[in-house]
Design a protein that fits this description.
Structural class: alpha+beta
Number of strands: 9
Largest sheet: 9 strands, antiparallel
Strand order of the largest sheet: 1-2-3-4-5-9-8-7-6
Order of helices and strands: HHEEEEEHEEEE
Radius of gyration: 17 Å
């Protein structure tokens, strides 16, 4: 299933340019991808270039600004950041997300980590809090790892969430 999601996501990135041509091109691209997947996954393209692929193992979204419905409410996305990509795997029990915000938002990322800690998360001893933009937290039934990088004109955060054993 992961292979189907990865293959369809890669193909969709090349087809997403068709969405700029209007609804009928979007519909044709979406139909072609769904036909190629033969029911192993479902593809939805929006007219703004967003791509959503759903399969039995999970969901991935690019450019939709959305999170999977199964995203844990205990780990909200960082405030002020836009969702670039978000997805779930392993039957909606593991999640990844990429987020962006304009400018240097490293202080906001630090505040986000502290906010999670105020809500019951503790520092994962394997990752020093904030060292090189890395954060590892455990609590509320989840392990949350994220990396924040200031890219000169924006700050990027990549996050991974998994349930604790």
């Amino acid at each position: 299933m992961r292979r189907a999601l990865a293959a369809s996501a890669a193909a969709l990135l090349s087809l997403a340019a068709l969405t700029a041509c209007g609804g009928s091109a979007t519909d044709r691209a979406e139909d072609a991808m769904n036909d190629a997947l033969s029911g192993s996954a479902s593809v939805q393209l929006d007219e703004d270039g967003g791509v959503k692929v759903e399969g039995s193992d999970g969901t991935i979204e690019f450019g939709t600004g959305g999170l999977p419905a199964s995203w844990p409410s205990e780990v909200p996305p960082p405030a002020g950041f836009e969702v670039i990509m978000a997805g779930s795997t392993a039957g909606d029990t593991n999640w990844t997300g990429s987020f962006t915000a304009p400018g240097d938002q490293m202080a906001a990322v630090e505040a986000y980590a502290k906010d999670l800690m105020n809500k019951g998360f503790a520092v994962d001893g394997n990752i020093p809090l904030g060292a090189n933009g890395m954060y590892g937290l455990v609590g509320n039934g989840y392990r949350v790892d994220f990396l924040a990088i200031y890219m000169g004109d924006s700050t990027q955060v990549t996050m991974r969430i998994e349930p604790l054993p």
